[in-house]
Write a sequence for this structure.
């Protein structure tokens, strides 16, 4: 029998997580602190999250029998990456309380639907237009202007499935790389910096948000998150209000990350939203009493949300590829060192991160 | 082949932990952050630490075959409670690097040997005398004076195996309760307060120590640890120096807790030492970048020790027995909530703890 979604999962209960990467691993560790058990379901049998949980399923995300057994074994379900098939999530949601919901997931899986949704809430975003065909792509570029980026609507991450459009391009050959995948053209923004807001919404609609970090990328991968971002008080409040409107409109439950471009004239444009815990929120593990991972587990489990206050400023830096080989040197520094237990170091692969704390300030210290 | 003790266990390696209670669970969670795997060996098949680890053995602590297989499966070994048979530890130490060593464990398992050792280092402790027989007990009480406490030399914890001696006692009937177990008489100290020092020593002799909390007990169980304790700078330095001498003399590797009585004239008396992570050090999870649990794992794994600095003041309170039923209220407070995943609530059982942080101060704020 499907439990009432209003019943919290008590200590000793089990949360199921679809996906077994570092986000799932850190979710599992946060759940453990609350006395909750975790069942991880991943299609990779050496998933990092498997090391730290009681129950593991290694199976495809469309394996109905394994999914049914998984649902049977848990009290509530969530996911740690947004490329879970939304049909899988919808099927699981019929069995057990499943958060975030399949609709929110489906929306954030499609860049065009997501941007239409944001725009529909009258929240500013970058200029964009859909591009299903080559002629549509040409039209889209006229509408957005250049420089722009042609992106696949689905399954992109860390800069994969993206091509720069400068205006003097061989659009036909670029478009061919899509291999028929639906696409979107987005105008490149000449922003001052990027920041992100990690928000959380509970089953009963309570909302919380952490302070925004400034995010510094290199080769399309997050390198560093620096908290607090150099936002005015007004900008911070606006970012939280935008995230709250998005979460409310989606009837969202769990942690939601909203990435912003801060323009040179101080405006906030939503770049994209991620229906999950986010790399730019890892600093909350050390700088807050309740991390983004614990907040997500609390929301999914129907618990009260925790305090989002931070007691320190923080700088989080990712360890990418072979940078994690340097663990002995990093272990000597006054940092919190996190290694994700991945068996194989690959270029561009997120292997771990380090967080430094410094005393709390309203505005960020100069670098 | 037994590896050289100087080789660190690299990320991806496995640490074996004897004992599966909350300390083992928190050690396992700390190891996970470093990308290390954990194999827990416990004689209780519902051990809380089993929920959060890759490999589990449920077997008796003298089951040679299970112990051999356990040793085979790990890269280094430690324990989370001091009543591990020291013969078991000695056997395991022949197979794999095992820390702390069997000698340190054996010493701290025997209150009389421990006090003789402390005294031999010319470190002040309470007045004490061994009491193997009833006449010896009478003599011991004459030597220590009253009020005093008669304690079993071995296997006591949280006030179990202890009897008050006021001077007007029926010593014969009290002594009978020992059922022949070797005992010790300790003079009760009229102390100002109790505090403890959580120290760590690495395989290569590096030493670190956290600031001392003041410990408040109720019914012989730690209720609260309040950091920093109201010690003078000189007392803090003395406490660290004492712990360093003890660790050095034992050639100790891992986390060591030294409990002190602070007398009304400002002296420090060693009450007892624990060869493990300690309940009074749980606040290090939130108030430091590297917790006592991670320090212990680092020491056992041959890693560099981490920073012991704290960025905040902290108050840790245990959740005993039915207090953990109150988790929904506690989850709303601005605290770090820890629940240990124990299946059964029993009176006096440590079910979890909460930690509050406040801004750093050299001396403690008044309560």
């Amino acid at each position: 029998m499907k439990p009432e979604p209003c019943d919290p999962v008590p200590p000793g209960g089990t949360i199921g997580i679809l996906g077994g990467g570092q986000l799932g691993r850190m979710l599992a560790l946060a759940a453990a602190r609350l006395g909750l058990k975790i069942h991880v379901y991943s299609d990779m049998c050496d998933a990092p999250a498997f090391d730290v949980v009681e129950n593991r399923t290694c199976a495809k995300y469309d394996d109905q029998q394994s999914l049914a057994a998984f649902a049977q074994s848990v009290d509530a379900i969530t996911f740690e990456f947004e490329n879970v098939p939304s049909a899988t999530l919808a099927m699981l949601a019929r069995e057990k309380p499943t958060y975030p919901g399949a609709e929110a997931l489906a929306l954030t899986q499609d860049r065009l639907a997501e941007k239409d949704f944001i725009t529909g809430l009258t929240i500013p975003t970058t200029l964009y237009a859909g591009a299903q065909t080559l002629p549509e792509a040409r039209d889209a570029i006229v509408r957005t202007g250049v420089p722009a980026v042609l992106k696949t609507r689905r399954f992109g991450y860390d800069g994969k499935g993206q091509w720069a459009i400068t205006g003097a391009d061989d659009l036909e050959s670029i478009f061919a790389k899509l291999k028929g995948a639906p696409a979107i053209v987005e105008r490149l923004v000449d922003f001052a910096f990027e920041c992100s807001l990690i928000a959380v919404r509970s089953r009963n609609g309570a909302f919380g948000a952490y302070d925004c970090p400034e995010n510094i990328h290199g080769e399309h991968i997050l390198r560093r998150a620096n908290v607090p971002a150099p936002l005015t008080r007004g900008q911070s409040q606006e970012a939280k209000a935008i995230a709250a409107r998005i979460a409310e409109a989606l009837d969202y439950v769990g942690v939601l990350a909203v990435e912003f471009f801060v323009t040179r004239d101080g405006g906030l444009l939503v770049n994209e939203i991620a229906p999950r815990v986010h790399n730019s929120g890892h600093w909350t593990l050390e700088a807050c009493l309740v991390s983004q991972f614990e907040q997500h587990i609390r929301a999914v489990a129907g618990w009260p949300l925790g305090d989002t206050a931070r007691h320190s400023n923080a700088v989080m830096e990712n360890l990418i590829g072979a940078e994690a080989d340097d663990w002995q040197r990093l272990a000597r520094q006054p940092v919190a060192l996190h290694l994700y237990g991945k068996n194989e170091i690959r270029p561009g692969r997120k292997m771990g991160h380090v967080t430094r704390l410094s005393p709390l300030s309203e505005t960020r210290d100069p670098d």
